[in-house]
Design brief:
two-stranded antiparallel ribbon; about 30% helix; seven-stranded mixed β-sheet; Fructose Permease; about 160 residues; alpha/beta
Protein backbone atom coordinates (compact mmCIF):
# COMPACT_ATOMS: atom_id res chain seq x y z
CA UNK A 1 0.00 0.00 0.00
CA UNK A 2 1.18 3.52 -0.82
CA UNK A 3 2.28 5.71 2.06
CA UNK A 4 3.45 9.26 2.45
CA UNK A 5 3.78 11.05 5.79
CA UNK A 6 2.49 14.52 4.84
CA UNK A 7 2.80 16.96 7.75
CA UNK A 8 2.00 20.08 5.71
CA UNK A 9 0.25 20.67 2.36
CA UNK A 10 -0.18 23.98 0.55
CA UNK A 11 -1.39 25.29 -2.78
CA UNK A 12 0.82 28.17 -3.85
CA UNK A 13 1.53 29.44 -7.36
CA UNK A 14 5.14 30.23 -6.42
CA UNK A 15 5.60 26.87 -4.68
CA UNK A 16 8.85 27.06 -2.67
CA UNK A 17 9.53 30.73 -1.82
CA UNK A 18 10.30 33.11 1.04
CA UNK A 19 7.01 33.15 2.99
CA UNK A 20 6.57 29.41 2.68
CA UNK A 21 10.16 28.53 3.59
CA UNK A 22 10.70 31.05 6.41
CA UNK A 23 7.23 31.32 7.96
CA UNK A 24 5.59 27.93 7.45
CA UNK A 25 8.35 25.36 7.03
CA UNK A 26 10.24 25.78 10.35
CA UNK A 27 7.24 24.83 12.51
CA UNK A 28 6.42 21.62 10.63
CA UNK A 29 9.37 19.41 11.50
CA UNK A 30 9.40 18.18 7.91
CA UNK A 31 12.56 16.52 6.63
CA UNK A 32 11.69 16.66 2.91
CA UNK A 33 10.07 19.29 0.72
CA UNK A 34 8.09 17.74 -2.12
CA UNK A 35 7.09 20.04 -4.96
CA UNK A 36 4.82 18.35 -7.48
CA UNK A 37 4.70 20.42 -10.65
CA UNK A 38 5.26 19.20 -14.21
CA UNK A 39 6.41 22.59 -15.53
CA UNK A 40 9.06 23.29 -12.87
CA UNK A 41 10.28 19.68 -12.72
CA UNK A 42 10.82 19.69 -16.48
CA UNK A 43 12.84 22.92 -16.49
CA UNK A 44 16.35 22.36 -15.01
CA UNK A 45 17.07 26.09 -14.60
CA UNK A 46 13.81 26.81 -12.75
CA UNK A 47 14.22 23.67 -10.69
CA UNK A 48 17.71 24.76 -9.62
CA UNK A 49 16.50 28.27 -8.77
CA UNK A 50 13.69 26.82 -6.66
CA UNK A 51 16.14 24.62 -4.78
CA UNK A 52 18.01 27.78 -3.71
CA UNK A 53 15.07 28.56 -1.39
CA UNK A 54 15.42 25.19 0.35
CA UNK A 55 16.83 25.30 3.88
CA UNK A 56 20.23 23.63 4.34
CA UNK A 57 20.07 20.03 5.46
CA UNK A 58 16.57 19.46 4.12
CA UNK A 59 15.95 17.01 1.28
CA UNK A 60 13.83 18.05 -1.67
CA UNK A 61 11.99 16.43 -4.51
CA UNK A 62 10.86 18.74 -7.31
CA UNK A 63 9.08 16.26 -9.52
CA UNK A 64 6.36 15.73 -12.08
CA UNK A 65 3.01 14.22 -11.11
CA UNK A 66 3.97 10.93 -12.81
CA UNK A 67 7.26 10.74 -10.89
CA UNK A 68 5.47 11.60 -7.64
CA UNK A 69 2.97 8.82 -8.27
CA UNK A 70 5.76 6.36 -9.08
CA UNK A 71 7.72 7.30 -5.95
CA UNK A 72 4.68 7.18 -3.66
CA UNK A 73 3.57 3.80 -4.96
CA UNK A 74 7.13 2.48 -4.52
CA UNK A 75 7.14 3.84 -0.92
CA UNK A 76 10.34 5.73 -1.75
CA UNK A 77 9.97 8.21 1.11
CA UNK A 78 9.31 5.71 3.89
CA UNK A 79 8.40 7.58 7.06
CA UNK A 80 10.10 10.84 6.11
CA UNK A 81 7.99 13.82 7.10
CA UNK A 82 6.85 15.62 3.94
CA UNK A 83 6.17 19.32 3.33
CA UNK A 84 4.00 19.13 0.19
CA UNK A 85 3.58 21.97 -2.30
CA UNK A 86 1.56 22.10 -5.52
CA UNK A 87 -0.07 24.75 -7.68
CA UNK A 88 -3.50 23.13 -7.84
CA UNK A 89 -5.84 21.19 -5.58
CA UNK A 90 -6.22 18.76 -8.47
CA UNK A 91 -2.67 17.55 -7.80
CA UNK A 92 -3.40 17.13 -4.09
CA UNK A 93 -6.57 15.22 -4.91
CA UNK A 94 -4.65 12.86 -7.21
CA UNK A 95 -2.15 12.20 -4.42
CA UNK A 96 -4.97 11.48 -2.00
CA UNK A 97 -6.55 9.08 -4.51
CA UNK A 98 -3.45 6.93 -3.97
CA UNK A 99 -4.59 6.45 -0.37
CA UNK A 100 -2.44 9.21 1.11
CA UNK A 101 -3.94 10.96 4.14
CA UNK A 102 -3.66 14.71 4.38
CA UNK A 103 -5.28 16.34 7.41
CA UNK A 104 -5.24 19.96 6.25
CA UNK A 105 -4.69 21.77 2.96
CA UNK A 106 -3.83 25.46 3.00
CA UNK A 107 -4.74 27.46 -0.09
CA UNK A 108 -2.33 30.38 -0.46
CA UNK A 109 -1.94 32.07 -3.82
CA UNK A 110 -3.04 30.75 -7.19
CA UNK A 111 -2.13 31.51 -10.80
CA UNK A 112 -5.74 32.23 -11.64
CA UNK A 113 -6.50 35.73 -10.39
CA UNK A 114 -9.79 37.50 -10.98
CA UNK A 115 -11.37 34.45 -12.65
CA UNK A 116 -13.40 31.55 -11.35
CA UNK A 117 -14.40 31.11 -7.71
CA UNK A 118 -12.83 33.72 -5.44
CA UNK A 119 -11.33 32.32 -2.24
CA UNK A 120 -9.34 35.45 -1.35
CA UNK A 121 -7.77 38.43 -3.11
CA UNK A 122 -4.86 36.13 -3.98
CA UNK A 123 -6.67 32.85 -4.68
CA UNK A 124 -9.24 31.81 -7.24
CA UNK A 125 -10.13 28.31 -8.42
CA UNK A 126 -11.75 26.86 -11.50
CA UNK A 127 -14.87 24.67 -11.44
CA UNK A 128 -12.59 21.64 -11.89
CA UNK A 129 -10.39 22.68 -8.97
CA UNK A 130 -13.45 23.31 -6.80
CA UNK A 131 -14.67 19.80 -7.60
CA UNK A 132 -11.25 18.42 -6.60
CA UNK A 133 -11.52 20.37 -3.34
CA UNK A 134 -14.90 18.78 -2.64
CA UNK A 135 -13.36 15.35 -3.17
CA UNK A 136 -10.46 16.29 -0.87
CA UNK A 137 -12.95 17.40 1.80
CA UNK A 138 -14.88 14.17 1.41
CA UNK A 139 -11.67 12.26 2.21
CA UNK A 140 -11.54 14.01 5.60
CA UNK A 141 -9.12 16.84 4.80
CA UNK A 142 -9.84 20.31 6.17
CA UNK A 143 -9.27 23.05 3.58
CA UNK A 144 -8.46 26.60 4.63
CA UNK A 145 -7.41 29.78 2.89
CA UNK A 146 -4.42 31.61 4.34
CA UNK A 147 -1.87 33.87 2.66
CA UNK A 148 0.67 33.76 5.49
CA UNK A 149 0.79 32.58 9.10
CA UNK A 150 -0.05 36.07 10.41
CA UNK A 151 -3.45 36.07 8.68
CA UNK A 152 -6.35 34.01 10.02
CA UNK A 153 -7.15 30.66 8.45
CA UNK A 154 -10.61 30.79 6.85
CA UNK A 155 -12.51 27.58 6.17
CA UNK A 156 -12.95 27.42 2.40
CA UNK A 157 -16.55 26.19 2.74
CA UNK A 158 -17.53 29.41 4.51
CA UNK A 159 -16.51 31.19 1.29
CA UNK A 160 -17.87 28.89 -1.43
CA UNK A 161 -20.71 26.40 -1.34
Amino acid sequence: MASLNVVFARIDNRLMHGIVMTQYFPSTGAKRIMVVDDEIASNPARKEMMNLAKPNGVASSIITWEKAKENILADKYGQQTIFLLAKSPITINEIMKLGIKIDKLIIGCTDLLGEGHKLSDRAYVTDEELQAMREIRDKGCKIVVQHNPQTPQVDVWSIVK
